[in-house]
Amino acid sequence: xxxxxxxxxLLVYCKTSMLIHDPxxxxxxxxxxxSMKRFAYLLLGFTTAFSNVYTDQKxxxxxxxxxxSISPQVxxxxxxxxxxxxNIAAIExxxxxxxxxxxxxxxxxxxxTHNFDKGGPGEEVWKKHFIPLNALxxxxxxxxxxxxxxxxxxxxxxxxxxxxxxxxxxxNNICWGSDQPKQAADGVQxxxxxxxxxxxxxxxLVLGVFPRRRTLDHPHRKEIIELNSYLPxxxxxxxxxxxxxxxxxxxxANGFLSxxxxxxxxxxxxxxxxxxxxxxxxxxxxxxES
Length: 290
Prior knowledge:
Elements: H1 3-20, H2 25-32, H3 36-51, H4 78-94, E1 105-109, H5 111-114, H6 123-130, E2 135-139, H7 145-153, E3 164-168, H8 181-198, E4 203-207, H9 219-235, E5 241-244, H10 270-289
Parallel strand pairs: 1-2, 1-3, 3-4, 4-5
Helix pairs in contact: 1-3, 1-4, 6-10, 7-8, 8-9
């Protein structure tokens, strides 16, 4: 199928889905008014993904027999497309000297990072700690490592490289997901390599996946502990990468995860976001100043 035919069909899908199904209704009006050129630019990337959804040779570390965690994959959901377009627009604005905008910190992740956005439990924490650092929220609810890889492959490059990227991803690959902890850890490694490939001088702070479920003996908690155990070795040879595991900050002395910290046993509360920010801020600021 020719690219222009695919683009036309996807454009109809996106516009229809956004009008009818998009739960993020506060964004609809903004994106319906985007130019056809921007949608064509974004959707052209999808045609590339369709040719081989599970393999993308532009990602470092991809082997011939790649497993899903390290294989870039698009998500055909209207809100996801719209959010990706929003990030493209933010980078375009930062690249325009007339607009005077900066992006110096990339916050990369899933719904846990997404929750720093407006209306989320971390909104006030974001305003206090991350807006002053000129941060861009690249957290998408439900994303796995393979989705993050696709997004990074289809972002325009910042003319002025960011100073730091913070990465926390992998919980959706395991637990309720279909990947093994080592596979998810491989995905984290490939994303770190990709970030270094995009901006070789940028510092990268990789966080251990946050604990889930109330007790240490829960299978999900055990999978996360196993995933994190692989990361120091997998990341040590990647330039400018620092690893930090702050998971214990959310737990009591017995390893119990309270409702006060994570009401649903997965996503931090406002207090959890405050602990997160306070735990990484000294390292972040040090990396941004170095």
